[in-house]
Amino acid sequence: MKKTKFIIFFLLCASVFMITSGCVASEKTPVSTESFLSEMKKIGFEAHDIKEKYADADHVLEVYVCVNQKAGFQIEFYRFNSEDTAKRIFAGNKKETEDNAGSKSSYSSVVIGNYGKFRQTSNGEYIVISQIADTLIYIKAPEGNKVVVNNILDGIGY
After folding, report:
1. Under 8 Å CB-to-CB from 122, ≥6 apart: which residues?
2. Which helix (H) or strand (E) segment is 9 a member of?
3. HEC states along 14-80?
């Protein structure tokens, strides 16, 4: 019995050490702008470069809005000057989305290493904010498109 307790204790300590030291967390590789645009075109989204709207924002390097009228939602893609900037923007958007949630809402959130993902369903809308390294994707879609949105994001690794 003592031996079993010792083994369980040892495994628990080893797991905590690995998690806190970052051994378990894996880094994700962000999609390149070219690959993102190519994937959006393949699935019927039309990309628009809207960087000029952020001309005064030195931290924003690239911004594309991809629209598909049939889908009824758009996908926003941002590339920032650093991972820290992307994480800050992710956290700000996440907080704003949470603050604006209706009384009946559900959400999930994860932040590991260079990656963060937030999903919220509220007031008939499905919102996803996904950040990898210096990139961020923002989607606000009708709740009925939840599966479609998740499939798109899975397809590009977000």
Report:
1. 100, 101, 102, 104, 105, 106, 107
2. helix 2-21
3. HHHHHHHHCCCCCCCCCCCHHHHHHHHHHCCCEEEECHHHHCCCCCEEEEEEEEECCCCEEEEEEEE
Count of all residues that appear for the chain in the document: 158
Provide the 10 A C-beta neighbour count for residue 84. Answer: 11
Work out the end-to-end distance of the chain between its first and last CA atoms, rounded to an integer number of angstroms.
45
Q: Do residues 155 and 39 lie in contact, with contact meaning Cβ atoms separated by under 8 Å?
A: yes
3 state DSSP class of 1:
coil
Q: Residue 76, SS3?
A: strand
Residue 28 φ then ψ, to 5°: -100, 150
pLDDT higher at 139 or 14: 139
pLDDT tens-digit map of 32-90? 999 999 999 999 999 999 999 999 999 999 999 999 999 999 999 999 999 999 999 99
Query: Would you state the structure tokens that stand for residue 110, as one six-digit string?
Result: 């994860």
Q: Across residues 106-113, what is the average pLDDT?
A: 97
Query: What pLDDT is stored for residue 3 in this prediction?
Result: 44
Distance between CA 100 and CA 20 in Å, rounded? 32
